[in-house]
Amino acid sequence: MNIFNRLLIILLDVALLVGAGAVLAVALGLARPDQLAPTAWFAERLAPFAQLDPTNRGWAVAVAVALLLVGLLLLIAELRPGRRPEPRLTLKEDGLGQVTIGRDSVRALVEREAGFVEGVMQVRAAVEEGRQGLLIRCRVSVDPASSVPELTERLQSRVKAAVEHHLGRPVAAVGVEAAMTPLVDARGGRRVR
Amino acid sequence: MGGTRAAVSELVVARAVAAAAAGVAGVAAVSPGRFARVGTYGPGELVRGVAVGRSAGGLTIAVHIRARYRPSSPLPALADRVREAARGAVAGLGAGPVGRVDVAVDDLVVEEGLG
């Protein structure tokens, strides 16, 4: 929703809250119409609510409370900040425009490439931007029969080459944390074998 | 008639750009956006994945795509082809000068057998 529509809804909602609140206060006898109304016109609209019989007063109070609740919920919904934008990496920016990619897509690419390395059973990656280039971290679960130093070297070079070629951004570091046990955490990790 | 140019709506531009981008080799689809909807609104219609605006420099266009993951095709080169296609589509409509064309890769589509 654009900002104009949002402002319009907030203004109408505030008007609803003020109106319903004034009706409630007058119907309950908490205030007189002339105390609440900034103009004679508004006081005249409120005056009937000060003279209601008990049945109609009950209805007026119930409707005003319902409108207040709806108005409050709407106001909270409109004032709540929107979802944070997806973190993105800029691949290129020139006079013709900008090229970006979602960080999740880069992470998926890293996990896919790491998964092709012999001996990698499961992988979970994270990608961040550093001053010298992208910083990639891979947590991998490895085949106990494999040589971890060799596997790590193959993984680092494969991931670095793939990311640099595919994204056109330098990779400053590929950190690898290898374990013989399956990865267990909230996100699990990509199982490749 | 030289020098006159019929106004082309943002919606028409968005439609043409979406079709052009979808036809670029390496583009799996035009993406509606991952976390926020991206599109150009018109009367009773929404073109998803392409946002068209106007600025002092001309039309500004943002195209969101899902790219095919092809190790032989780097993404910046793919984005260049999308930008060229978008500019070509706008030129074909005679919709006036184009300023920025931003390309956002929302997703990589991996085809089986690659690797």
How many strands of chain B?
6
Described by the principal axes of the CA atoms, the overall outline of chain A is: elongated
Separate helix tally of chain A: 6
Distance between the termini of chain B: 56 Å
Largest sheet of chain B: 4 strands, mixed
Major beta-sheet overview of chain A? 4 strands, mixed
Secondary-structure element order of chain A, N to C: HHHHEEHEEHEE
What best-fitting shape of chain B do the alpha-carbon axes yield?
Answer: globular
Q: Could you tell me the mean pLDDT of chain B?
A: 86
Which CATH first-tier class of chain B would you pick? Alpha Beta
Provide a concise account of the structure shown.
The complex is a heterodimer of chains A (193) and B (115). By secondary structure, chain A is an alpha+beta fold.
Describe the structure.
The complex is a heterodimer of chains A (193) and B (115). Chain A is of the alpha+beta class and 193 residues long. Chain A has six helices and six strands; from the N terminus they run ααααββαββαββ. Chain A has helices spanning 3-27, 33-36, 40-46, 54-79, 103-115, 148-167; strands at 88-94, 97-102, 120-129, 134-142, 171-179, 190-191. In chain A, strand 3 (120-129) and strand 4 form a beta hairpin. In chain A, helix 1 (3-27) packs antiparallel against helix 4 and helix 5 crosses helix 6. Chain A starts with a helix and ends with a strand. In chain B, helix 1 crosses helix 2 (75-93). In chain B, the strands form two sheets. In chain B, strands 1, 4, 5 and 6 form a four-stranded mixed beta sheet that branches. A two-stranded antiparallel ribbon of chain B has the order 2-3. The model of chain B is unreliable at 1-5 (pLDDT under 50). In chain B, 28% of the residues lie in helices and 37% in strands. With 115 residues, chain B is of the alpha+beta class. The longest helix of chain B is centred in the last third of the chain and has 19 residues, at 75-93. In chain B, 38% of the residues are buried.
